[in-house]
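Hey, quick one: can you model this chain's 3D structure?
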Amino acid sequence: MPQQKTDASFGKKEKLKSQKIIGQLFTEGKSLSVFPLKLIYIETENQEVSIKAAVTVPKKNFKSAVHRNKIKRLLRESYRLNKGVVFNNTQGNFAFLFLYLGKEIPAFTDVESKMKLLLEKFNARIHEKTNA
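Sure thing. Here's the predicted structure for all 132 residues.
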């Protein structure tokens, strides 16, 4: 399958902001984990883009907003760089929520490698479901 070139940005239209969909993610969403990241996803309908994503870091693990925001920036950047893995290989619309489960601030290289593994795991699950 030829790789399509994707836009390496994470624009406004790709950000998941709907409280309704975020609530659905927690109640009905399916999840995948590659420690310290967890992906919760659901299939959605009628989106401008095929995948909308959000990131979150629990306040319970990181009391300091500065640290939470740093980790969220790392998660968004690693998703932005690796989203082509998913965009080029899936049909349908999805909502993603990335959770950071670790207890300490990670290095970017660690986050990026785990993000790649997580997105590849998602692809494998989706292809397994469609081919079954």
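One thing worth noting: The first strand starts at residue 30 and ends at 34.
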